[in-house]
Amino acid sequence: MSEPSPAVPRTPLLLYDADCSFCSASARWLERRARRPLAILPIAEAPAAGVLRGLGERELWAGAHLVSAEGHEHHGAAAVTQALRLGPGGRLWALLDWPPLAPLRDGGYRLVAALRGRSGCRASTRAPRSRGPRGDGPGRR
Questions:
Q1: Which is it for strands 39-42 and 72-75: parallel, antiparallel or unpaired?
Q2: Nearest of 114, 122, 129 to residue 44 by alpha carbon
Q3: If we measure between CA atoms, which residue out of 22, 63, 70 comes closest to residue 43?
Q4: What is the pTM of this model?
Q5: For labeling, which of 11, 19, 64, 120 is most exposed (least CB within 10 Å)?
Q6: What is the domain range of residue 107?
Q7: Angle formed by the axes of helices 102-115 and 77-84, to 10°?
């Protein structure tokens, strides 16, 4: 289930791993095809935007996230289906959020995430980002 986010965007906000070419292309594709406003933001910029503050470093980088205009957070596969619901065929995508179909949705998301490395995505093989020297942000690699 979704959780309230400390900062509430004016439009749904999809957060993605900008170091992953597949994730970046998918986020831009969703943004272009959304029939209602959808903003996209690299996960690395989440702290500055004031969203997803309740997540630890590992959770933050574990997958995509969507913060609704009402402030509800959706993570992983649920974030993707929430974004897809804003585009053509939104009602059809909504079926994947139905509890009997959610395990299928989640399994598909895990499969795509596992295959990112085979598609040339460097981000899928990196360890979660470490804190900077002062413990105040992502470290540089």
A1: unpaired
A2: 129
A3: 63
A4: 0.79
A5: 120
A6: 3-121
A7: 100
Q: Where are the beta strands (DSSP E) in the chain?
A: 3-4, 13-16, 39-42, 65-67, 72-75
138 domain-assigned: no
Cα–Cα dist 88/90, whole Å: 5
pLDDT digits (tens, 9 = 90+) for 97-121: 999 999 999 999 999 988 876 665 6
The token duo for 82 is 């929430």
22/9 Cα distance (integer angstroms): 25
SS3 content of the chain, % helix, strand, coil (to 5): 45, 15, 45
Please enumerate in sequence order all residues whose Cβ is within 8 A of that of 26, keeping only pairs 6 or more positions apart, or say none: 16
Q: How many structural domains compose the chain?
A: 1
Name residue 49's amino acid: A
Q: Is pLDDT at 33 greater than 60 in this prediction?
A: yes
Provide the 10 A C-beta neighbour count for residue 130: 12
57 residue type, one letter: E
Instruction: Judge whether 135 lies within some domain.
Output: no
